[in-house]
Amino acid sequence: MSKPRLETKGLIEALNGEGRQRPVQITDQGRTVLERKLRAMARVADAGLRRLDVRPA
What's the CA gap between 21 and 28, in Å, rounded? Predict the structure, then answer.
């Protein structure tokens, strides 16, 4: 069985476990990438809400 793409990219790492639903955890690199993407999405959402004249939650 090949590694999932996120694992190959070093964004997650497998924990001990077997079967189809292997437990994984996010790596430090994965956390950095996720934070960057979430911040970018938040900027887009904020801009859209301002255009709609809606206050962010």
Answer: 22
Q: Are strands 24-26 and 12-14 parallel, antiparallel or unpaired?
A: antiparallel
CA atoms of 52 and 57, how far apart (whole Å): 14
Q: Tokens 């999405």 identify what position? A: 41
Number of other residues whose CB lies within 10 A of the CB of residue 49: 13
Structure tokens at 46: 């904020």
User: Cα Rg for the chain, rounded, in angstroms?
Assistant: 17
pLDDT of residue 1 exceeding 70, the answer is: no
Token digits for 57?
A: 């939650």
